[in-house]
């Protein structure tokens, strides 16, 4: 283990750049398609999740996460984990990276890559729906790509929105979600909702909608109208269309077909828009994006010496 690089959260963040990460994610999709597998183990309410990816030319990553819902009551973190990064050349373990470090940069970077391709470059009003940890990462990521933008946050709990605004200087708090969505150039949503919170009737031409929160088959953040009014893109068809409720439910109900999804990141050239289009991106994550992000973090670590 003496040759294995250990990358903790705070030290691993130093020197990272949101725009450089999105460039690395784009470059990763020029390589052969990833082999991806997920494994779940359960003990009552406790979960072990292993997400593995192999990309020829980039290496192998295994992201292991434990979810123990009873931990917060004991004053402990609910989620623990690490990302193991293996050499593409000989399979040796190169680095162990902090789970939260990779997840933070992967999740927001995933959405930002789509926004750099699909949102109008002159977007100046950005609404964040959901005032959790991911929302704070989105504020940092979108701020890097859209300097000078005005940010607003809406949260189901007003107290949560107020705390967000205190932590993120210059962010305003929205009290009416419908009017906030309609006023925004970009709407980025990271909620834990199982029922749609964002309605397509609130949209207007030229907007970009970024959906992050839904990750289970029973979860949705937008209604059917939102999908029907939008040109829909995803990060990866394999990990979204048949697995996440945002698309799985309306496809099963015959509202849209699988071909309503225009492209994923393996066809980045198709990520384009006309000025009046409403574009909608579903961020599904995936172990291949963890691998691309972990490799970028390790490369940055080595460059810093």
Description:
The chain is α/β, with parallel strands linked by helices and 305 residues long. It folds into two domains: 5-103 and 288-303, 2-Layer Sandwich (ornithine cyclodeaminase, domain 1), CATH 3.30.1780; 107-285, NAD(P)-binding Rossmann-like Domain (Rossmann fold, 3-Layer(aba) Sandwich). The chain is built from ten helices and 14 strands. The protein has helices spanning 9-13, 18-28, 99-118, 133-145, 158-167, 177-183, 224-229, 237-240, 245-252, 287-303, and strands at 5-7, 35-43, 46-55, 59-67, 79-86, 93-98, 125-129, 150-154, 172-173, 186-189, 208-211, 231-234, 261-263, 279-282. The longest helix has 20 residues, at 99-118.
Topology:
Blueprint (H helix, E strand, L loop, with lengths): L4 E3 L1 H5 L4 H11 L6 E9 L2 E10 L3 E9 L11 E8 L6 E6 H20 L6 E5 L3 H13 L4 E5 L3 H10 L4 E2 L3 H7 L2 E4 L18 E4 L12 H6 L1 E4 L2 H4 L4 H8 L8 E3 L15 E4 L4 H17 L2
Parallel strand pairs: 1-6, 7-8, 7-10, 8-9, 10-11, 11-14, 12-13, 12-14
Antiparallel strand pairs: 2-3, 3-4, 4-5, 5-6
